[in-house]
Design goal:
Blueprint lengths: L22 H32 L5 H21 L5 H5 L5 H22 L7 H31 L6 E7 L1 H11 L6 E8 L6 H9 L2 H10 L3 E4 L6 H11 L5 E4 L12 E5 L2 E5 L7 H21 L1 H14 L5 E7 L5 E7 L23 H8 L7 H6 L4 E3 L6 H7 L15 E3 L1 H4 L9 H16 L3 H13 L9
Parallel strand pairs: 1-2, 1-3, 3-4, 9-10
Antiparallel strand pairs: 5-6, 7-8
């Protein structure tokens, strides 16, 4: 007798689904809710602003029209990019930075429309500023609230989980089931089809012929996704499995191998007519890099102008305190390991920049009197605004180390070089978490590197703004200063 698929396990097969909310319906409801809230917000801010500023109601049709146009510009691109999916909320892709970028994009579009139609003079600038500010806070708060509500709804079973069928070797099925069956993830394994080991050709053909029962079961259970966990080297078996399950109104997936499974962002990429599997991507997209660079240019230029009297006073104090130059220039490594010379106020009696550099320590006799004050309050870093302006550094990023220290630690710490896949910063995630000052051991440097890599992997405009705020206000940002 030929072999056939093992008995299919059917957990939850008897559970009714009538009371569970459909995912697609929730996505549509979220889209409609965003649309209505933004449209009403446009109308409400217009009426409220004109009532307070002009003691009159204003043009209701005008306010409603702008509100509806704003709602369309905000919701339609998100819907087109499928960003009303549960995964986008639960996995953090609909966070504050997403709302910030989308909302600013909407108002740029409104500005362009107003300019092209020559209608900018019709609308109250004061109202638009109020609408922008209130709307930005509102869409950020809505995304945060929806994320929390969805997590609770999925955890309590009020929203239908995606129903999975796992097809593969039993150890692989067990591993995958453990990884996906989490109440907060929104996935549920409803059927398992264990595959036998290596078969000879006739036995494998008999086995494949018995797949009709598995397909019928998937159809009966309303499976949303079929995940095939077969060894990728068994090409003929995989092709047959895909053909068998492709008759279902369900998505068919090929489970990641042990190598590809390491990369959470692996995806298909097209190069002309060729297809490849992309395992990693640049730390920042071109658009993200542009946003970060524009922000750096504007803030660094403004800061240099506003702080010029402070910089001049510090320069005079350094000259009066000890002999030597005002500025300290040292070779550092920047983006993609490209070397540059950093600008700092001189705080020591030495100007080391050779193959061996001794880090400053607490009570170091090389630190000058004014230098100790500058280092304590991070004021010696202010001239690096010049490096930011010239594009060698960013306001926020991994702190650049002396070249000699880079050459030392890159041999000892895995992925050390990866911290410079973005421009180094005047301040960074490690610094606001107290990881600054001497790195006398590998563990101290490893902690700094871990924070730098976290920043690279989780960059957002909101994270940069938080780090800048914390640099100025948090006690941890001044910890371990020497």
């Amino acid at each position: 007798m030929g072999q056939r698929p093992a008995t299919i396990q059917r957990p939850f097969a008897g559970i009714g689904r009538k009371w569970i909310i459909d995912r697609f319906g929730v996505a549509l409801a979220l889209l409609a809710f965003d649309f209505v809230v933004i449209a009403v917000l446009g109308l409400a801010t217009g009426l409220g602003y004109h009532h307070l500023a002009y003691d009159g109601g204003g043009d209701i049709i005008q306010f409603a029209g702008i509100g509806v146009l704003t709602a369309l510009l905000y919701t339609l691109p998100i819907a087109y990019n499928h960003e009303y999916r549960f995964e986008d909320f639960l996995e953090g892709r609909r966070g504050p930075s997403h709302a910030f970028i989308r909302w600013n994009y909407v108002f740029l579009c409104l500005s362009a429309i107003g300019f092209l139609t020559k209608t900018t003079s019709i609308f109250s600038r004061g109202w638009l500023v109020v609408f922008y500010a209130v709307g930005l806070v509102t869409v950020m708060a809505l995304d945060a609230a929806v994320t929390r509500i969805l997590a609770i709804a999925i955890e309590t079973g009020r929203i239908a989980s995606r129903r999975l069928m796992l097809v593969g070797a039993e150890p692989e099925i067990a591993r995958m089931a453990e990884a996906v069956e989490c109440p907060k993830a929104g996935f549920r394994v409803v059927a398992r089809v264990p595959l036998p080991g290596v078969l000879d050709a006739p036995a494998e053909q008999v086995f494949m012929a018995g797949l009709d029962g598995a397909v019928d079961t998937a159809r009966t259970l309303g499976v949303d996704d079929v995940i095939i966990l077969a060894d990728w080297s068994r090409g003929s078996m995989i092709n047959t499995l895909v053909d068998a399950f492709s008759v279902l109104p369900a998505a068919v997936h090929l489970g990641a191998s042990s190598i590809i499974g390491r990369f959470s962002d692996a995806r298909l990429a097209r190069f002309g007519f060729a297809t490849a599997l992309s395992l990693t991507a640049p730390p920042l997209t071109a658009f993200q890099a542009l946003i970060k660079r524009v922000f750096d240019l504007v803030v660094s230029a403004a800061a240099l102008v506003l702080l010029s009297p402070v910089l001049l006073v510090i320069a005079l104090l350094i000259k009066c305190d000890s002999p030597g130059p005002v500025f300290f220039r040292q070779r550092r490594r920047g983006y993609n390991l490209k070397e540059f010379r950093i600008w700092k106020f001189r705080t020591m009696s030495t100007l080391d920049d050779g193959p061996r550099i001794e880090q400053a320590t607490r009570g170091d006799i090389r630190i000058t009197r004014i230098g100790s004050v500058l280092r304590r309050f991070n004021l010696d870093e202010l001239p690096q605004l010049i490096n930011v302006l010239t594009g060698e550094m960013s306001l926020v990023g991994p702190r650049p180390h002396a070249v000699a220290h880079d050459e030392l630690f890159e041999k000892r710490i895995a992925k050390y070089r990866r911290r410079l896949n973005v421009r180094p910063g005047i301040t960074g995630w490690a610094q606001v978490n107290g990881l600054r000052g001497p790195t006398e051991t590998d563990d101290l440097m490893r902690g700094r590197v871990e924070h730098d890599l976290y920043y690279i992997d989780n960059w957002s405009v909101s994270l940069d703004l938080y780090i800048l705020f914390a640099t100025l206000t948090s006690q941890r940002a001044f910890r371990n200063a020497v």
